Fold AMP-binding protein.
Amino acid sequence: MPETAKRSAREHYESLVSRANQAPEDFWAEQARRIVWFRDPATILAWDAQEHARWFIDGEMNICHAALDHHVANGRGDQVALYWDSPVTDSKCQYTYRELRDEVARLAGALRDKGVEKGDRVIIYMPMVAEAAMAMLACARLGAVHSVVFGGFSPKELAIRIDDATPKVILAASFGIEVDRVIPYKPWLDEAIELATHTPEACLILQREQQRATLGPRDHDWQECLAHAQATEAVSMLGSEPLYILYTSGTTGTPKGVVRDHAGYAVALHYSMEILYGTRPGDTFMAASDIGWVVGHSYIVYGPLLMGASTVMYEGKPVRTPDAGAFWRLIEEYRINCFFTAPTAFRAIKKEDPDASLMAGRDLSSLRSLFLAGERLDPPTYHWLNDLLPVPIVDHWWQTETGWPVAGNLLGLDMITRQASGPRAPVEARAGSATWPLPGFNVQVLDGLGDEVEPGVQGNVVIQQPLPPGCLTGLYHNPARFHAAYLAAYPGYYLTGDGGYLDEDGYLFVMGRIDDVINVAGHRLSTGEMEQVLGSHEAVAECAVIGIEDSLKGEMPLGLVIIKDAWRGDESALRQALAQRVRDEIGAIASLKDVLIVERLPKTRSGKILRKMIRQIAAGEQYQIPSTIDDPASLEDVREALSEAGVGLAGQARSA
Ligand code: COA
Ligand code: AMP
C-alpha cells in the first residue's frame, strides 16, 4: 500500500478514536441518529467514574422494529432478509423483510397469548432453524427478555439457566441434527424442567416434519399457536431496558448471565456493520456460528437486519455436511459479500481439503471480505486463507460481554470517511494480531500493579471506562459478581480476562485467557466447571482441568485427578467414566481429551493447585517453581503422566 494511503488511513482512524475518547457523547449521539427511534434520547451517556456506563437511557425504540418494520416502511419489504440453508435436513427457504416482519409479529402475538409481557424472560432452546431467529425477534418485539441456550449444552446446564432466568415460557424444537446424530431437544427440555426448581407456564414446540415430539400438558404446538395469533406491534422500550440475557462461562461452575440493552446494542451493531465489516444495505452477510453464541445474536440476527442486509442462517457444519466445500457452495449460492466464522472451522476444512480443491469451479466473485473470531486467528491458518482468497482476511477480537468487536481492521473506514464505494483494508494485517482497537474502545495493557506496560510487553488487556454502547449492562440479578469479575481489579477499567500486548504501531495481539476459561473450537468453556463435575465423582480426591493445545480445536480440556486411597476399581474404566460424566453434565461440546490419574498435583503450601504451571509443563514451556510450592516432587508426577499420555514433554523448570 502506498505511504500516503497508509498515512491517511491512520489519520482517519486516529481522528475517530480521539473523538470517541474525548467526546463520547457527541460521537455516539451521531451514531444514534443512524437508527430509528420512537423518541430520540436526550441523555446520551449516564455515567460517573464509580459506575458502569449506561447509554441512551431515556430514548425509546425497539430493536425488532428497527431491524424489520423500519426497512419494510422504507422500501426493503421485498428484499430477502433471511436465507435458511439446512444440508442436514436437505431443505432451504427464504423470507423477505415483509414476510419476516409478519411471521415475527404473529409469533409475538402467540407469545402474548401465552401471557408473555414486557420484562418477562423467555428461554429459546433450538437448533439453527429460521424460527429460532424469529423467536428472538418476537421476544424483542414484545419487550420480553430472551435467553438463548446453545443446543450443545446438557439438560443439567439448561436447568441451571432455567433457574437463573425463571422464564415464563420456553421455546424449543422437536429435534436438531448434528451431522448424523439426532439431538433430542424436546426430551432434553423435559429433563431440564424436571431438574430445575422453576417451572415455566408454557412451552411452544416447533414440530419439525422429519421427527415430531410427544407433547405434554404444558406444551403447545408452535404452528397451531401461530394459526390463532394476531400480529402484534413492537412495544416501545426505553433505551436501557434489557433485550436479552446470554449465559457465558466464567471461572466458577455458575455461568454468568450477560445482560444487553435494546438501544445501545442497536447503535453499536449498526456502527460495526459499517465501519468494521464494510457492509451496506442490500449486501448479503453470513456468520457461520450458532444463535446460542454471541456471534449468532449479533451477526446472524440483529446486526445484518439492522443494516438492511440479507443474512444467511446455516444448519450445517464446515465439513461433513456433506464435505469441506460447504462454505464455498454457500458463498456462491447466496452471493455472500461478507463471511464470518471461527478459525477452527477453516482448520477443519484445511485438514480435509488442504489444497481447497473443492473451491474449484465455484464463483466466489461476490465475496469482499472474510472475518474470523472466537479465538485467535493462528498465523498458519491466516496465511493459508490469505494465499487462497483475494479478499482481506480479518482477525477481530471480542467477547460475549462486549457484544461487538473491540479490535479489527476497519474495512469500512474509507466508506465512511471518504465515501469510497466498497470495503478495503485500511492497513496491512499482521498475522496473529486483531489490528487496531475500534473507535469507542480505549484498550490498554496493564501489569499486575495497574501500570501500563511498554509496547511489545504482555499484560492484562483492559478497556478504559466508559465502555461504548452495546456492551453488557450487567450480570443478570448479580451486581456484586459483575463488579468483582470485571470492575474491581483495576478501578476505572473493564477487565477483559484476556492477556496480550500492543506493538509499537498500536496493533493488538490477544494471546489467550488469563483466567480459568478455555476456548475449544471457538466455544468458551470453564475449566472450573469441569473440575466441579470431576470432583463430584466418588473416586476423586482432587483434580485439575487445563486447556492443552490442539491443532484442530485450538484448545482441548485435559483432566488430572488424584484418586482416593480407599477407592478400588479399574482405572481405565474410571477415566472413561469421568470423561463421560463431563459430557453428560455439561454437554457434548465439553469433550475432555483425556483424564490422567496422578499421585500428586503441584500445590502451594496453602493448598492452591498450581494450574498455570501444569499448563506450562503440558505446553513444553519454561516455568518458574514458586518458593511456596508444597512438594516439588509432585511436578515429576505430572510430567510423567503427561508424557505417558503424549502431552508436552519438554517443560523446563527454573526455581524462584
Ligand atoms: N448441538 C448439539 N451438539 C453439538 C452442537 C449443537 N449445537 N454443537 C456441537 N455439538 C457436539 C458435536 O456434535 C460434538 O459431538 P461428538 O463429540 O459426539 O462428535 C461435540 O459437541 C463437540 O463439538 P465441536 O467441538 O464443535 O467438534 P466437532 O468435531 O463436532 O466440529 C468444528 C468441529 C470445527 C467443525 C466445529 O466446532 C465448528 O464448525 N466450529 C466453528 C464455528 C463455531 O461454531 N464457532 C463458535 C463461535 S464463532
Ligand atoms: P466468547 O465470549 O465466547 O465470544 O469468547 C470470547 C473469548 O474468545 C475472548 O475473551 C478471547 O479469549 C477469545 N477470542 C475471541 N476472538 C478472539 C480473537 N480474534 N483473538 C484472540 N482471542 C479471541
In short: The chain has a mean pLDDT of 94. The chain has two domains: 3-500, 515-654. The domain at 515-654 is CATH 3.30.300.30 (GMP Synthetase; Chain A, domain 3). Residues 3-22 form the longest helix (20 residues).
